[in-house]
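Hi support team,

I've been running sequence recovery on a batch of backbones for a student project. Most finish fine, but this one hangs at about 90% for roughly twenty minutes before it completes. I'm not sure whether the input is malformed or the queue is just slow. I've pasted the structure tokens below so you can try to reproduce it. Let me know if you need the job ID as well.

Thanks,
M.K.
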């Protein structure tokens, strides 16, 4: 009897996967419920940032839904989802490292150009307190002056998602959750 109870979640997951593969996406929330906690935890361990892990987990399940037709049951479904999660998080880490390199280069260039500018260090400190995605959105919007549509295309996000995240960044800075943010409020256009 215990065996039946232990096998039930696996059977439920298998049936949900089969339903979604046959076109019944109403079964997909069951897949999410079954795997969400573990995928989120895995993302957190890799990314070491709660908000980034939550965003990554959401993106992973979207990828999973889009690619579910590619799943062939030679390995467990959860292993297939973990592979998607692993690849997604590694890509995010690589982007984060590129962003750090860009920031480091920016810091060196700005230090040379703006030796007399007292705000340079404060701007750099501001950026360092934001997560990778927040930095990218802020830099693309405030410095490069891209539209939300353009930023969405660059970052593979919906424009509405970019707009919402940008507003959160603005509030975070303006409310001084990030030290020194009040003086930059005028630079953070909507």
């Amino acid at each position: 009897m215990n065996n039946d109870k232990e096998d039930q979640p696996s059977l439920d997951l298998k049936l949900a996967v089969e339903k979604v593969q046959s076109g019944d996406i109403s079964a997909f929330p069951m897949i999410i419920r079954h795997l969400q906690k573990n995928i989120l935890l895995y993302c957190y361990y890799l990314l070491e940032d709660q908000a980034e892990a939550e965003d990554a987990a959401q993106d992973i399940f979207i990828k999973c839904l889009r690619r579910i037709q590619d799943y062939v049951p030679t390995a467990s479904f959860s292993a297939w989802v973990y592979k998607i999660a692993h690849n997604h998080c590694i890509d995010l880490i690589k982007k984060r490292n590129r962003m750090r390199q860009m920031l480091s280069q920016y810091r060196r260039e700005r230090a040379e150009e703006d030796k007399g500018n007292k705000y340079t260090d404060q701007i750099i400190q501001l950026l360092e307190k934001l997560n990778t995605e927040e930095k990218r959105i802020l830099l693309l919007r405030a410095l490069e002056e891209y539209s939300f549509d353009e930023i969405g295309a660059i970052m593979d996000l919906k424009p509405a998602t970019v707009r919402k995240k940008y507003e959160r960044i603005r509030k975070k800075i303006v409310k001084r959750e990030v030290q020194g943010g009040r003086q930059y409020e005028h630079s953070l256009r909507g």
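--
Follow-up from support: It reproduced on our side and the slowdown came from queue contention, not your input. The longest helix spans residues 77-113. No action needed from you.
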